[in-house]
Amino acid sequence: MRILLTGGAGFIGSHFSDRLLAEGHQVVVYDNLLTGSLDNIAHLLDRRDFTFIEHDVSESIPVEGQFKAVLHFASPASPNPNSPFGYPQLPIQTLKVGAMGTFNTLRIARAHEARFLLTSTSEVYGDPLEHPQREDYWGNVDPVGLRSVYDEAKRFAEAITMAHHRKHDLDTRIARIFNTYGPRMRLDDGRVVPNFLCQALTNQPLTIYGDGSQTRSFCFIDDMVEGLYRLLMAEGDVHLPVNIGNPVEVSIAALAEIVGQVSGQAIQTQTLPDQRGPSDPQRRRPDISRAKAWLDWEPKVTLETGLRLTMDDFKARL
Amino acid sequence: MRILLTGGAGFIGSHFSDRLLAEGHQVVVYDNLLTGSLDNIAHLLDRRDFTFIEHDVSESIPVEGQFKAVLHFASPASPNPNSPFGYPQLPIQTLKVGAMGTFNTLRIARAHEARFLLTSTSEVYGDPLEHPQREDYWGNVDPVGLRSVYDEAKRFAEAITMAHHRKHDLDTRIARIFNTYGPRMRLDDGRVVPNFLCQALTNQPLTIYGDGSQTRSFCFIDDMVEGLYRLLMAEGDVHLPVNIGNPVEVSIAALAEIVGQVSGQAIQTQTLPDQRGPSDPQRRRPDISRAKAWLDWEPKVTLETGLRLTMDDFKARL
Q1: What pLDDT digit, counting tens, does each position of B74-115 carry?
Q2: pTM across the whole model
Q3: Where are the domains of chain A?
Q4: Which residues of chain A neighbour B152 with C-beta distances below 8 Å?
Q5: For B150, which residue in chain A has the nearest alpha carbon?
Q6: What is the interface pTM, i.e. ipTM, of the complex?
C-alpha cells in the first residue's frame, strides 16, 4: 500500500522505510532534516517506490495521490541538553511537531480514510512512580519543567490521536517507544549508547554520570521495527497505546562493561557528577504484556549482538 | 494599556473585560462564540474602548495596532458530557484552542513584546494524589482518557508558554483556575452550581450524584477576577503557574443545603448513581500559598454571598 511517513530520514523512521519497502509498500517520506539526515536514506533515493520530500510537517502538508496509511514519526527525540539535536535545544520545534504535526497528519489520514500510527514515547511516563510501566499508568510529568517540551507534546499528540479515533472513528494506533539503539543513530546524539560507542572507538574512557546504578532498557532497532510493523498491520481494536521496548533492564555501569567486551579492548571509565535534572527518570522499563497479547511480539536481539552491530556501523562512520 | 483578550465573551473572560475597562485599559476581544455568548458583553459593545471580533483564535489571528498584553482565556471549560457546551462534546476544538490558540497568541505577544497571560486550569492536576494541590505537584492525568482533550491541551499550553518564556524571554504568566461560579455562567453549563440554582429556581429537587460526599472548592467570580488581575499586573519573577481558587472545601451535599438556605425555600434532593468517569476527580482544593505570597491575594466572598448574587442573576435570566 501507499504510505505517508513523517520523520522518515530519522534513525527509526529510515529503518522503518527500509522495512516498508521490503514488504512491498510504496513510501513517501516528509522530513525537514532538522534532526534527521539524508545519509540515512541515501540508499533509497533512486528507488521508484520511494519519494523524499523535504518539508516541515508542522506547517500544512501538501500531498499528491491517495494514502492507505499515515505514520507520524517526526520529532526531535534526544533529551540531551548538550547536543544541538536534543529537544531541550529545540523546544518550540518539538512542541510544534507534536501538536501541529500530529494535527496535520491526522487531517490527511481522515481525508484519505487511512490508517494512522503515532510514535509516542516512554517519556509520557515522565519520572515514573510505578515500575515497570504499564500502558494504563498515567505518568509523572512536570508540565512546566525543561523536559515538558517533549513529554507534554507527546502526551498531547496521544490525546488528539485518541480524540480523532473516538470522534471520527479513525483507525489509529499509538506506539510508546522506549530507548532504542542501532546503526544510523547520530554519533552526536548525546545519549549513552552512542556516547559509549564513540568513546570506546576513539580510546577514550567511557563517561558515567553518578554512580552508574541508574538503569535503562535498550531495544535494538530491528526489534523495534518489527514491533512497529506488527502494530501497523494488526487488525482489530488496537487503538490504545502499546509499549514497544525491551524489558531487560541494565545499569549504566553494566552497559559500560558490555561495551568493553564488544569492543575487545580494555575499557576505562570516568565518573562525573550526576547531571540529572529534577525530572530526569532514574529508572524506566516497559511492561510489554500488551504487545505480547495484541501483536505476539517481544524483542529477540541480545544487548551484546545489538551493540556489536551498532559498533560496526559507528566504526564505518567515525 | 491596549490588551488583546481571547475568550472575552465567555463567563470569566467577560467579567475580566469589565475589570480591564474599569481600570482604564482598552480591550480587544476575540471570541468565536462556540461556548461564549454575546449576551455577556452586550453592555460593552457600544464603548469606544472595547472592540469585539468574532474569530476562532485556533486559526491565524489578524491584528491591527499594537498590544501591551495578550491574554489567552479562550477554551470550552465545562467537563459535563451531557452539555452541548462541555468539552467532551467539543474534543477537537478544545485540543486546538489549547495548542494552536496558545501558539497563535504567543506569537502576537512575542511580535509586540507584550506581556502574556494564560488561563490554565486545576484540571492539569487530573485526579490528584496529593491534597490540597500545590503548583509543584505534577498531577495525575490519563493522556488518552475522555477528559484528556481538555487536561492535556492545558498542560500542553503551559509547556509552550514556559518554553516561550525560557527560549524567548517572553514575560509570561500562568493562572491555574479552580472551580469558579457567578453571574453569566451558562444556565445549561452542566456543572453543579448552575444545575442546583436552576433546579432550585424551578422548584425541582436538586440532583446529587452518589452520596454527595465528594467535595469541591468554589471561587466567586469577583475573587477570581481580582486574582487574575493581580497576576497580570504583578512585577518580577511570576512566571511559574499560580493557583487561583478558593481553598474552602465543601461537599456537594453541603452545597445543596446552602443553595436551599439562599433560595429561602424548602429544598428537596434527589440521589442518582455516581456518574463519575474513571478519571473524574473525587476531591480538588487549591493550595494558594503562592498567590498569597506573590500577589497578596486570597478570596473574600463567602459561598452564601456568592450564591445569592448568582441566584439573582439566574432568576433574571430564567
Answers
A1: 999 988 888 888 899 999 999 999 999 999 999 999 999 999
A2: 0.96
A3: 2-181+220-247+285-300
A4: 152, 155-156, 158-159
A5: A159
A6: 0.94
